[in-house]
Protein 1
Amino acid sequence: MASSENVSRAQPVWTLRGWLSSHRNFQRLQQVIIFMIMVVGAVAMIAPFEWMLATSFSRSANVAMPRIPTFWPADPSSFNYKVAITNLPMVRYYLNSFIVTVASTLGYLFFSSLTGYAFAKGRFVGKSVLFIILLTTLMIPFEIRMIPMYLLMRQLNLNDTYAALILPFISGGFGTFLMRQYMSAIPDELIDAARVDGASELTIYTRIVLPLCGPPLAALTVLSALWRWNDTLWPLLVISDRNLFTVTFGLAMASRSQGIYTGVALATSAIAILPIMILYLFLQRYIIRGIMLTGLKG
Amino acid sequence: MLRKLRKSLIWYAFVAPTFILYGLFVAYPTFETFRLSFYQEVATQQQFVGALHYIRLLGNQVFLAALLNTAFLGIVFLMIIIPLSLVMASLLNNLRVWSNLFKAIYFLPQITSTVAVALVFSYVFQPNWGLVNGLLRQLGVDPLPLWLAEPRYVLTGSRAAVTILAIWVALGYYMLIFQAGLQAVPAELYDAAVVDGAGPLQTWWLITLPNLRPTFIFLFVTGTIDAMSRFSDLWMLGGPAGTPARSLQTIVLYMYQTAFESNDFNLASASGVILFVVVLILTLFNFRSFLQREFSGQSGA
């Protein structure tokens, strides 16, 4: 054992070059440098949030901000939060966000998987044509369709309803595409066996296919939830009733009126951000896996 | 034949809901945007006016500035985020401790709503006591930059501020996609490079980068589309007009302002069609340039 150590020490250890010539030491130094770069980045990621929190707990922040940024309130108080909650019906906003997000996500999962199943395992005239139609329009950004969508909603008298926030998003080309890709890999024998046993297609879909589709369903849940929870542009077009504001949209509208009160404004954003962040702490692994699987972001 | 159709019926039922909704909210609105762009509302009647709105737009300084601005913000953003996130992802991929923790932290801004992030950053960039200028003052910088109050094309103006914001938000996502790409590079290639005596940088340049081609294409295409349709953060920071001095106005902001503040749905639709065409051209161009490189690379080998 002692001899092998002597062999690896080709250069004396007391010079830097000698120390680095050992492969293990070089690796160690490399790890430390990478680690430090990552820490700098991580501090940059967290600092604005931390500063927001510190300021939101400072009552004096509404009157005068310290010229040197502090990451701990000089006068800790929950005053700004009390004002924020009295000013805005945040509980109501959360309820609205929750209703809209859950309803559209459930719809998105159901219709994407149902149609995806038909495209993966169904046999019907026009299948490939319909699938191609769906694919070619995958890239049409929402912004290009938004004006006629708004006019349509106005015609249907759906503006200022939950339906306006939910209906346009309960199905989607991407979800269908992802489900179809995943379901195509399910062996035909499995489905044929069930057909021979007399199971209807609907039974096969609910009992056999869906239980096998955990990963894409989880990924679509993450995407749809992030999209709906964070959407601003569409609510801006179809919602003017304060009782239907979502958290994100309510925050956007409020920022216009209370912008001068720094402490209150940052407390309001903290109320909008923190619950989602705490949820992220628990679901982080699934969220990141979902984004990696689809390549799309929230 | 009839039996075959009847057997198909259940499948049509499975496909129908998606296609009905798709028709209502994708196909019809896209078509309608094109149609509206050729009409003009005269006393509540829509009249065909041909390319009038397009001619109006191409002579409209505000629209052209918004178009240029969108392209400028998008190009600068992509030119910084792609190399930065690639380097960071490569480094993180080699880190043996806490790499999942860092991944989670870098991804944090991505799950936070754009609106909340933009709101926080409007204070972060406040010139007198904001986080950024407060730190710069500690470092002895004088005079302090104006950030969001400076409309000119300078390194510390409004465009720089929103670009920093966009990079801060997107870094974790771009790193994640690059990491997925890095992990998909076959390990045998690296082993072969080591046998051939290639150093770490050589390996990265000659093996890693060429194998990331699909990731590059994907990020360029999606990044282009995202940049072209940028709205929420700029709307929060500068309103529909992209204050200051329209330095933050993008095409979608222009569209929104034209449609919902000036009530000119026809002109707004025409700008939407132009946005559509630009996105289409850029996407095809991105694909083509990468495919071409692939082709020439293969014939050279």
Note: Chain A touches chain B through 93 residues (CB under 8 Å).
Protein 2
Amino acid sequence: MALISLQRCLIVAAALVLSACAVSPDGPVWPYPQPPQSGGDWGSQAPPPGPQQPPDSPDAPAPEEPAAESVSHHPTVLALVAQADEERSAGDLDRAASTLERAIRIVNDDPLPWLRLAELRYEQSNLIQSENLARRSISYAQPGPLTRQAWLLIADIKRLQGDEAAAREAQDKARGG
Amino acid sequence: MSKFASLTLKLTLVLGCLALLALTAYTLVLDQQIRSRFAGARWALPAQIYAAPLELYPGLQLSKYQLIEELERLGYRRHPRAQLTQGRYSQQRDHIEIQTRPFVFSDGPQASRRLVLEFGARGLDEVLEDDQSVSLVRLDPLLIGSIYPRHGEDRVLVNLSEVPALLPHGLVQTEDQRFYSHFGLDPRAIVRATVVNIRAGRVVQGGSTLTQQLVKNFFLHNQRNFSRKFSEAILSLLLEVHYEKNAILEAYLNEVYLGQDGQRAIHGFGLASEFYFHKPLAELGVAEIATLVGMVKGPSYYNPRRHPERARERRNLVLAQWRDAELIDEQAFTTAQASDVTTTGQRHNASRRYPAFVQQVHRELARDYPDDVLTAEGLRIYTSLAPHVQAAAETAVVEGLDSIEASRGLSTLQAAAVVASVTDGSILALVGSRTPGDAGFNRALDARRPIGSTIKPVVYLAALQQSERYQLTSPIADEPVRLEMPNGSVWEPENYDKDAHGEVPLFQALSQSYNLATVNLGLQVGLPEVIETLHGLGVEDQVPELPSLLLGAWDRSPLQLTQIYAALASGGYAQKLISIRAVQTREGQLVKRYPLELGDPLPADAVALLNWAMQQAARHGTGRGIYRQLDPSLQIAGKTGTSDDLRDSWFAGFGSNYLGVVWVGHDDNDVTQLTGATGALPVWARMMRMAGLQGLSSRRQSGLEWVPVDTQSWLPGDDNCSDVLRVPYIAGTVPQEQAPCARSGWNKFLDIWR
């Protein structure tokens, strides 16, 4: 430590002498000490990530919708829903949510990504958002498998909230009541 | 004598030592300064704000012209197909090829990609990459602003490794040829400059090295005197002691002052490239790099926008130096020298174009981040601004007001407009003034004016929620009202046409915007219920419990009114209007995501009925003027509003993708003689036509019954009635009583006995 500060004093003193001198010899006489390694300066910065294969590009051909739906979904929405499913199974729920939001912004009245987002919020124990999203998904759907799933999700939420009556009512709606 | 001499010697020695000590102390102070300033320079980065990226996918409703407009906005240049490189596009009829720029989005990086876009009659038909179909890809987002500190330094940081190699080499060649060999000062250059200056009798040449110039930019600005020169020299030496040449050069590239943009100082080549040429540094050509390097000598004197001829001469001098030093070949020299000094107009400068929107972003950020974080840490802010919607809103306001003023002999009208996404309540466009780019009073956020009849849908929604009592066809008394107020005054509202219309069906009272019917209905329903509905729609502040609230004697900003309509447009889900989607660190690490959040819904069926009534208002009522500009096949919900004495003119409405609010009035609150239908409505319709408003879905919502209603008695009718309107009812609330014209049910039974 003392050695370093002594070294620094010498360097400073040398700079001082040179600056005080009006004239100094030509040519590269000045030795360049290494830049401080600790704080890291601009020169030692790692280059930014190069053009790699983007992990987020849903370029894969749109997968088949697993359940036979009477409604047709936009292929881009399906690709994003599939991507979100992968992100979700990889445990990255936040990223999956933002992928589903992207799908929702592209086609705002497709109930599928709204329902998937509702399920995701349920998984994150955000019951209020989950229910509201499920209801909004229902508002865009014709009665069918998607609305059934949404009502079942709402029934689960109501049960968790201790509202048996509302849970039963949602269960009935899921059965087409 | 010798005693005196020895005393003098001693004194000199002591004084000399003291001077040396003082100098040492001074140097140590400077040393501390330079190191903290240099380390700090890495961080003093304004937050950068980006618009939403354009998402490209097959089926997107986007014409090739709209795409080209978007590409031009992003600074992509049109070139022949053979010369396609990053930031360029080529077009052949319905076939557009792009080499995109790489970008780190909030959810990960996307490399530069070569895309082929095929357009058809309905929009984008196909997106191809290497002959493979692509389902979704983004363009890089538009940089729309930065939050720089009060002293106004803005910059776009660049890495030495990323800039075109010609820039650092050319800069060294032109400004400081011995940069890599000197120690911070260049005695030869000083001597040469001194000789030249003495001969000329004035300062014509500087002997400053790049290091000295950097020090000057860091600390000393433009003061020239001996003590400054002295500290500058010491600081330069110290800088060289502590840092590598390349680190100093990189700092220089980011720090050097290259012009002024109003309050904003343009620092560094990264920002200068955006500011003067509207493209990233990596895409600059030889001539453009030479122009910028030439400007170092005198940023305002050689400003290519203000003094193109001077800038051209200087540039060509720089080019000649580079050719002589063999940095560029003869051909590059000839081409570059022959090219014009072309800069983009101020208009193209996106970072100044959207001040109203950026102000909203800043306010939202200020809730979560202190100012010093925003101005110094280089955060990347991803917003929801849709540049094409913003362009539509700005153009509509400019053209709309011009046309209103011309036809009505008015002047000095002002306006504000907000467009939000029906889907998630994010703000897509914000206009705070009739002059685009005006960074002054932001009317969209800060002009609070009485909203007039645009509040009425809330009154009717409060009623329709009591579904047993009120249906769309329920008779409402449009009859005079006289209320004695607690303070002794009397409130006697009137209809716009001064007539009372007797009993009218509820939906017509709204679509024709009858004041008396609305007040009667609101008082029947109850003011507290109306206010509760407002809160359900997302209003958080106190609402005055006064009957005049029913007619919109309530001051709201255009943004606040948009908030209320966002809940109506989404089917009853209150949505906080937000402009930010995510915040990232400079290195691309996610700091915060602003997720889609829905408020607890109001009853969906009541909202659906209200929206049907608002479609009647837009189709047949006070809002019907929108179809002079919009496709008549589109189903649109909307409502006009006019404040007392024709001071404020409002229109609020929505389709399935966008919702918008427009206000027109005078800043001094003077009378405009405009109603909602003659002022704000035409601006709104123009804006929505240009933005690409989509109609509401005709899908029949479950839980509603559609009944043919006789338009005489407003009771359920059938095929025997000559004039019926199909009206939705919440299941189970269809009135039992039949229209006299109906010949089924009870009437059929009665017919037998007649």
Note: Chain A touches chain B through 67 residues (CB under 8 Å).
